[in-house]
Amino acid sequence: MKPVTNFQSAQPEARSKELRKFGMKDKIGYLFGDLGNDFFFLLVSSFLMVYYTDVFHISAASVGILFLVARIWDAVADVTWGRFIDTRKASAHGKFKPWILRMSFPLVFSGILMFVQIPGMSNGFYLVYAFITYILWGTLYSTVNIPYGSMASSITSDPVERTSLSTFRTMGGVIAGLLVNVLGPLILFVDNKADANHFMMGGILFGILSLSSYIACYKMSTERIIAPDTQANQTIFKLTLKGLIRNKPLISILIISLSFMMLTLLSGAVNVYLYKDYFGNASLLSIVGLIHISAMIIAISIAKPLVARFGKKEVAAVGMLLAAVVHLSLAFIPDLTAIQFITISTIGTFGVGFFNLVVWAFVTDVIDYHEFITGLREDGTVYSVYSFARKLGQAIAGGIGGFAIAAIGYNSVNIVQNEETLNGLYRLSTLVPGLVYLIIFSLLVFVYPLNKQRTLQLSADLAAKRNERN
Questions:
Q1: Co-location of 108 and 221 in the same domain
Q2: Which intervals hold domain Major facilitator superfamily (MFS) profile (predicted)?
Q3: Residue 282 maps to which CATH number?
Q4: pLDDT score for 466
Q5: Which structural domain range is residue 356 located in?
Q6: Coarse DSSP helix, strand, coil percentages of the chain, rounded to the nearest 5 percent
Q7: Domain-located, residue 133
Q8: CB of 56 within 8 A of CB of 227?
């Protein structure tokens, strides 16, 4: 049986003829969607752990268990909600963006609830409250993020235009990162301590910004490609599964992305304690955020020509090697001041930035390779496997972060942590990232097979196979 490729560009409904052409308004609208996501996602991933340990006085190990359970549940929620969306008929405003508008209100409200401290309650109450509100927020996040991520394919069918949407989505994340990482520490901490009232203020502020961004995304984006209500699905599951197992680029990029995601979230959580306790100044996080985002912007400007000349794998590998060398050097340089530490670590940020900018392009190559070895164009299936690996990385990182902080002896009751704990924080911020970046570099060089030459050859071979089928 000849396999059927996924639906890509069925004839739009008649109403599509009356819609405006794809343009800058769509790009900015899509940017706002990720801006709305990341205002709260970055606030939570960077500062929620310290809020739980220092305001709710929940043990770091308990927070780790909460994050682990929540991320595993989120992976299930993503798949469930994605299936639900696929079974709904498109409305007059499209199939995906109405859900962004509908669910953004309960999502933002649940986010603010996480930062509500009810005075006089027991530690057990705060633990239960944290579990309920955090898992509720994560579930509602899926109801907005899944349709947002799926919407790009319905805004336009043109590959170049879809690439521009991806670029603007990245820009939305960068802008959110700049605002959260710079303003967050200034709002949330008072005299170098996490303050319950200020965290509440921060939750409300970023909640308003998030909701406004979602509304802008809804208003400015237009879905043009409407798939039929029912589509033939003749994909053979056994062939799909066999192809996934044989897909060496997919397996290797899953391991790489899993490792990278775990480290990113672990570092985000540990860095708050590093600057608050080791360097004794949480407000420095604002400077760190501003400098690192600036480094990312510079990396964006030079990544494209570097990739065009050397290839995605090659640029990502060099970036990981640079990050590994910088962090391992920091681990063995004694008695650095905060400014010296920030200056040296910024060099490593360039390396991390290059990897971040090309990782989504790896996924495109992996999808092409799956089609090459199976004859099936299954973008959604392959992408969902990749997305699941990232969620698994988040789950493990959430657990590891809490356990690691607990293992080095962190005690939120102590105004000043003991020397062993402070040294442990420093090792978690330097030695651990250095080793993980070195492992990722090795996997890229020695395991991931699609270098520039092989990627170009894959594209040519795939084009030839498509011509044969036609």
A1: yes
A2: 245-470
A3: 1.20.1250.20
A4: 63
A5: 234-470
A6: 80, 0, 20
A7: yes
A8: no
Q: Which residues pair with 194 in a beta bridge?
A: 189
pTM over the 0.70 mark = no
Ranges of the chain whose pLDDT falls below 50? 1-17, 159, 227-235
Domain end point (choices 209, 226, 243): 226
Task: Give the pLDDT score at 382.
Answer: 64
Beta bridge partners, 94, equal 91
Q: How far is CA 73 from CA 66, 78, 137, in A?
A: 11, 9, 12
Per-residue confidence (pLDDT) for residue 232, from 0 to 100: 39
Number of domains into which the chain is organized: 2
Judge if 200 and 276 occupy the same domain: no
436 neighbors 263 (Cβ within 8 angstroms):
yes
Residue 244 lies in a domain: yes
Asked if 35 and 213 count as a contact pair (C-beta separation under 8 A), the reply is: yes
Rounded distance between C-alpha atoms, residue 323 and residue 436, angstroms: 10
Q: Are the C-beta atoms of residues 199 and 188 closer than 8 Å to each other? A: yes
* The token pair that represents 355 in the structure block: 């990897």
Residue 228 phi, psi (nearest 5)? -60, 155
326 in Cβ contact with 347 (< 8 Å)? yes
* Whether residue 250 is found in the same domain as residue 211: no
Give the helix ranges, DSSP H, for 156-283.
Answer: 159-188, 196-220, 237-246, 248-273
In terms of domains, do 212 and 252 share one?
Answer: no
Domain match, 262 and 370 both: yes
CB 405 within 8 Å of CB 276: no
Q: Which pLDDT value is given to residue 14? A: 36
Q: What is residue 8's predicted lDDT score, i.e. its pLDDT? A: 41
- Token representation of residue 225: 């490609």
Contact 368, 336 (CB under 8 A): no
Domain boundary residue among 200, 226, 252? Answer: 226
